[in-house]
Amino acid sequence: MAVSNKKYNVIDLKTGKLDSRIFSDPDIYREELEKVFGRTWLMIGHESLVPKVNDFFHTYMGEDRVILTRDGKGKLHAFLNMCRHRGNPIVRTDVGNTKNFFCPYHGWTYSNDGSLEYVPGEEEAYYGAVDRDSRSLIAARVETYAGIVFANWDSGAPSLEEYLGDARWCLDVAFNRLDAGTEAIGPVKWIEPLNWKTAVDNCSDNYHVPTTHLSAILVQARHFGLPRLTHEAQFESPSKHLFINGHSLTMRMLDRPDQARQTHGVTQENRSLFEEYYRSTLAEAERRLGSVRAGKLQLGNHSIFPNGVLGLRLAHPRGPLETEFWHFVVLEKGMPDELKRALRMGSGNYNGVAGLFEQDDMDNWRGVSRSSLTPLAQKYSQDLSMGVGRAGSDPDFPGTVAERYTSENNQRSFYRRWEEFMNAESWEDISIEPGTADFEGTATMNG
Amino acid sequence: MQDGIPDEVGMTAQTFGDGVSQSELWHELMQFYINEAWLLDDRKFREWLDLFADDVFYFMPRRLNVGRQDLSREISEEGDLAIFEDDKTYMTMRVDRLDTGMAWSEDPPSRTRHLVGNLVIEPLPEGDLKAKTAFILYRSHHETDENIFAGSREDHLRKEDGRWKIYKRIIVLDANVILAKNLSVFF
Ligand code: FES
Ligand SMILES: [Fe+2]
User: Fold this and answer.
1) Residue B12 above 70 pLDDT?
2) Could you say which of A35, A128, A227, B97 is the most buried, measured as most Cβ atoms within 10 Å of its Cβ?
3) Relative to the CA of A86, which ligand 1 atom is closest?
4) How many beta-carbon pairs below 8 A join chains A and B?
């Protein structure tokens, strides 16, 4: 490893050597809860999960329990689920609708805008000395992107728009295509025996697909008439592999604007229905995204720094070697029910805890995360050397673009970004790439 | 007696369709489920698949953790994201996958034990049956991985060529967050 006075120097960009202790060391884990999860914009849900006033959805920011509420005026909030008296969680359910949160320990009661409304014995037991205003629920900053709700604990962090940067140019293609917006269904939740970073770095690992997922590839070719995905096809693929501002993205090229997107759930049988759908929505998409993004590109695998895995799917840290995974599916609201059903079944049956594809990832990811558990194995770094020096700028795409779709450039860059957060004293030390993308069309952060 | 459970004292006079008594049917179904459990635990997945009708809907909704006033939201509905939402094609893909020799989540395969009981049956129109069972599924994998899944199953069955076929199965786990790396076994 190169010599550096930085505390964390875990990835060597020239050799691709990665220090595997970052997956299992408890001290590193504790520090990343603060320096990564305490500073970044984290996806916590979707507006469609709290559609009505007074709805709430229980979520997480790192290991911290968080309540996403929509108050009586329709405004979104994210609160630490912790009573200001003794710290007891005031919400114990996944979802609900209430104006007030009542702490079941001693009865302190908060409004869904966070203010402490009622303290039993305020006059008698406390002699009127409780300053209720200073005991509101702890609130995070909340911002949304096309209906996806993000929150951030750090007042020094840039806006969500700056944080996403030109990654949004790519994300728009999937999440911001139509006026009606999207809805999220789910999540399916399960515990994975691995470090959260392994699940995230895998999003750009196009290399693993033909090996890890061969059985699923074979049966989907047999039953759905889909082309068999091979190593050769991946190596020759014109799809792009980009890294922007910490976020990993892959973009696929469409042969024609109404081409059925390559998504779980699209089959030889229903393909023409999808094409009809893309044809009928093309004009609207072009108005919103411009003709290139509406008709020439499809968003492929991607991750949003730090822990977003393929859109709104979350790898919540639960200790160095445990991750609580949340699998949501985001669908375009106006899509015909038959197509929604196909995508829902496809996404649910390919990914998720029972997914034909995803179930085969687990033991591999666990193996990667646990490779550093012994002093002996720890002496040997992991290898992310694929395509070193083979990435740069591209006239047609923002960010750093790898020469090939199969490359470990995004994984190296992900760990470099992680290092940047871990070594920073504050957001002052954390870079934001200047935006260069041309956001053609009318779509904005607000949909 | 309770609905669908045979009375210990005189067998019920209630008949289900063709003059078969409830207690005979209950025993027939119980044998069906014992057989199903052995097929799964003996890894005879093709034969297991054959217990399902071609138009089967195999569904495992999510189980939410909700307050008493929200119990109507406890089990996610069709249209929401489910844990399994399979038709016969998807079920067949799951079984075919195991035969490719490259289904890593099941190679080496899980060692399972399905315990099925608490059977309650109820007649449906046209001689079909609704059968509810409770199950415990134990899974051991690799050296030390262990999972216990508990839940209920509600099946709708019809006779096809003299054999019961399941055309709808709703599996409801009792767990909220699933404490398993994956669900590569069948329920
Ligand atoms: S801890 Fe909440 S009221 Fe005491
Ligand atoms: Fe994978």
Assistant:
1) no
2) B97
3) 1
4) 134
Asked if residue B141 lies in contact with residue B129, where contact means CB atoms within 8 angstroms, the answer is no
Give the predicted TM-score (pTM) of the model: 0.96
Which are the contacts of A315, defined by CB distance < 8 A and separation ≥ 6?
Answer: A192, A196, A199, A200, A307, A308, A309, A323, A325
For A307-330, how does the pLDDT look when each residue is reduced to its tens digit (9 = 90+)? 999 989 999 999 999 999 999 999
Query: Which residues sit opposite A142 in a β-bridge?
Result: A151
Determine the distance in angstroms separating the CA of A351 from the nearest CA of chain B, rounded to an integer. 10
Residue B150's alpha-carbon distances to A189, B115, B116, B154, B186, in angstroms, are 16, 10, 10, 14, 13
Instruction: Classify residue A18 by its DSSP letter.
Output: E
pLDDT at B1: 42
Over residues A411-430, the pLDDT tens digits come to 999 999 999 999 999 999 99
Edge-to-edge strand list for the sheet holding B129-141: B84-86, B52-60, B163-173, B145-160, B129-141, B111-123
* ipTM reported for the complex surpasses 0.85: yes
Q: Residue A403 class from Cβ within 10 Å (0-12 exposed, 13-18 middle, 19+ buried)?
A: middle
Which pLDDT score, from 0 to 100, does residue B141 have? 98
Single-letter amino acid, residue B163: R
Across the interface, whether the CB atoms of A223 and B97 are under 8 A apart is answered no
Specify the residue with its C-alpha closest to ligand 1, atom 1. Answer: A86
Locate the ligand 1 atom nearest the alpha carbon of residue A119 and give its number. Answer: 3
What spacing in Å lies between the alpha carbon of A375 and ligand 2's midpoint?
29
Beta sheet of A109-111, edge-to-edge order: A100-102, A109-111, A116-118
Percent pLDDT > 90 in chain A is 96
CB contact under 8 A, B66 and A347: no
CB-CB neighbors (< 8 A) of A223 in chain B: 89, 92-93, 96
Question: Which domain does B166 fall in, by range?
Answer: 11-173
Q: Which helix H or strand E contains A187, and what residues bound it?
A: strand A182-192
pLDDT at A201 over 90: yes
CA A396 to CA A376: how far, in whole Å? 46
In a domain, B5, yes or no: no
> Residue A419 and residue A339: Cα distance in Å, rounded?
42
Write out pLDDT tens, residues B41-52. 999 999 999 999
Residues with CB under 6 A from ligand 1: A 83, 85-86, 88, 103, 105-108
Question: CATH 3.90.380.10 residue ranges in chain A?
Answer: 167-429
Chain B contact for A191, CB < 8 A?
Answer: yes
Domain A167-429 has CATH 3.40.50.150: no
Q: Indicate whether B99 pLDDT > 60.
A: yes
More confident residue, A2 or A412: A412
- In the prediction, which pLDDT does B14 show? 58
Is a pLDDT exceeding 90 seen at residue A262?
no
Topology at the third CATH level for domain A42-143: Rieske Iron-sulfur Protein (2.102.10)
What confidence tier does B4 reach under pLDDT thresholds 50, 70, 90? low
Residue A90 Cα to ligand 1 midpoint, Å, equals 8
Count of the separate structural domains present in chain B? 1
Instruction: Judge residue A44's burial from the number of C-beta atoms within 10 Å of its C-beta, 0-12 exposed, 13-18 middle, 19 or more buried.
Output: buried
Paired tokens of A354 = 């029972």
Residue with tokens 């009127």, as numbered in its chain: A128
